[in-house]
């Protein structure tokens, strides 16, 4: 798998400072749009004229994924005011055409090229693939967002390459998005009615517990039958076509979502935004229809993500599956924790006790440094986590970690340096009146701690 990482747009602490204040419910809007930004001679649209018209119309949407944003990228961004936008990877043949514009800060942005392509539709002429980012919508609301543009065409080679593309997305989700809410949206070039594509779509949805916003909202959860007649949209739609008619047909641009234990997506919508992106004559501004969704979210009253400290190195970890015991009603309690370190934080090891009395020990990072240990007393809980990050050998590491309990006792290791932040227990009531306390961690690690964030649980 080929992958490149963007330079960080800002430190985590700076991004977090920008974000909104704590809230337990809210919503955000999504737009996915293939903007047909191939060079004029190759494009089936009119990008030199239409891209400047698209740009100011992106404003109402919280997070926008675009595909085929190649040779008119500057025009696409020129009249847009979103605070956080990915830098272009270049025009044809150097860039992937995938970019994101967001009202919310993000971390861990990566571009990944497909392992497979089929040459007959020009898919191998550019490094098409997927992008990943972790977006902070609000305090405790971190969402993993994927953009993609899969292999085009309907030949057997296209269908096979597309299956590989979607499987690659699935593998990425299984590694990077454990315990996280997920949004996947982009130009999939797939149809549920097309044999082969239907299997690929079923696999990615089933394997990752994803929900298709179109199938759920328009079709009442009923998938079009594989091998049945394609539900092709008119292009362009006739003037006066209703929204019900706009969404009755199947487009290849799709939106998949899933909730997590920490953040529930209570409601999603699905809209074809055709009328928002037409010229003065009512003609579409691209050869694809833009699709949108509004997601209503709610924070869990049992488990929460604290903001992390650290950098984009190491492998991801998320302890939510370890501390829940399969149910939000059975959050484990922290009983002891050891921090290893000296000049930096090398590793963390902690033990939790599940409601059934069984204990589990989890370790992150390496074995270097000197250990410091805290055994919690009955009724005692960790209520504050302080952490600092700095650079070492070109990598951002966790340099300092300090925990404070409800009894005022502390455990710390490492050396305070660089960017520091403090995370405290949620202020709203926990499920069933339980008190909040530290129950685990999430972040990135290797032979040291690269990033660490608190998992707060209503378990005490």
From TrEMBL:
Keywords, alphabetical: Signal
Signal peptide extent: 1-21
Provide a Gene Ontology MF annotation, just one.
Answer: phosphatase activity
Q: Name one Pfam family in it.
A: Jacalin
Stored Gene3D superfamilies: Endonuclease/exonuclease/phosphatase, Jacalin-like lectin domain
A cellular component term, taken from the record's GO annotations: cytoplasm
Q: Which GO terms describe its biological process?
A: phosphatidylinositol dephosphorylation
Coiled-coil region(s) at which residues?
Answer: none
Q: Which InterPro entries match?
A: Endo/exonu/phosph_ase_sf, IPPc, Jacalin-like_lectin_dom, Jacalin-like_lectin_dom_sf, Sph/SMPD2-like
Q: Does the keyword Lipid metabolism apply?
A: no
Its recorded name reads: Jacalin-type lectin domain-containing protein
Question: Lineage, please?
Answer: Eukaryota, Fungi, Dikarya, Basidiomycota, Agaricomycotina
């Amino acid at each position: 798998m080929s992958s490149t990482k963007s330079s960080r747009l800002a430190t985590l602490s700076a991004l977090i400072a920008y974000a909104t204040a704590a809230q337990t419910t809210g919503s955000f809007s999504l737009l996915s749009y293939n903007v047909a930004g191939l060079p004029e001679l190759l494009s089936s649209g009119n990008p030199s004229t239409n891209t400047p018209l698209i740009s100011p119309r992106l404003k109402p949407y919280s997070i926008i994924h675009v595909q085929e944003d190649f040779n008119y990228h500057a025009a696409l961004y020129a009249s847009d005011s979103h605070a956080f936008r990915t830098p272009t990877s270049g025009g044809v043949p150097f860039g992937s055409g995938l970019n994101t514009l967001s009202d919310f800060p993000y971390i861990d942005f990566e571009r990944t090229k497909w392992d497979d392509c089929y040459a007959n539709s020009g898919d191998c002429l550019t490094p098409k693939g997927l992008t990943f980012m972790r977006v902070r919508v609000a305090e405790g609301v971190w969402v993993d967002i994927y953009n993609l543009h899969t292999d085009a065409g309907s030949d057997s080679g296209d269908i096979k390459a597309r299956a590989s593309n979607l499987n690659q997305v699935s593998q990425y989700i299984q590694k990077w998005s454990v315990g996280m809410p997920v949004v996947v949206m982009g130009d999939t070039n797939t149809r549920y009615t097309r044999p082969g594509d239907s299997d690929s779509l079923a696999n990615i949805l089933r394997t990752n517990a994803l929900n298709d916003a179109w199938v759920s909202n328009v079709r009442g959860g009923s998938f079009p039958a594989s091998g049945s007649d394609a539900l092709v949209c008119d292009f362009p739609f006739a003037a006066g076509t209703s929204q019900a008619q706009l969404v009755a047909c199947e487009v290849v641009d799709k939106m998949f979502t899933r909730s997590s234990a920490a953040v529930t997506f209570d409601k999603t919508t699905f809209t074809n935004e055709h009328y928002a992106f037409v010229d003065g004559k009512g003609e579409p501004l691209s050869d694809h229809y833009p699709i949108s969704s509004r997601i209503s979210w709610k924070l869990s009253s049992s488990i929460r993500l604290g903001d992390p400290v650290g950098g984009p190195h190491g492998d991801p970890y998320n302890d939510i599956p370890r501390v829940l015991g399969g149910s939000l009603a059975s959050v484990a309690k922290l009983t002891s924790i050891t921090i290893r370190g000296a000049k930096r934080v090398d590793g963390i090891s902690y033990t939790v006790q599940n409601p059934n009395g069984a204990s589990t020990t989890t370790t992150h990072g390496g074995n270097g440094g000197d250990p410091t240990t805290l055994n919690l007393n009955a009724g005692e809980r960790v209520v504050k986590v302080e952490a600092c990050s700095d650079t070492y050998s070109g990598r951002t590491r966790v340099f300092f970690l300090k925990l404070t309990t409800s009894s005022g006792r502390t455990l710390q290791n490492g050396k305070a340096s660089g960017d520091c932040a403090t995370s405290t227990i949620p202020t709203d009531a926990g499920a069933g009146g339980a008190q909040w306390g530290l129950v685990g961690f999430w972040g990135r690690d290797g032979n040291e701690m690269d990033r660490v964030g608190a998992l707060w649980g209503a378990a005490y």
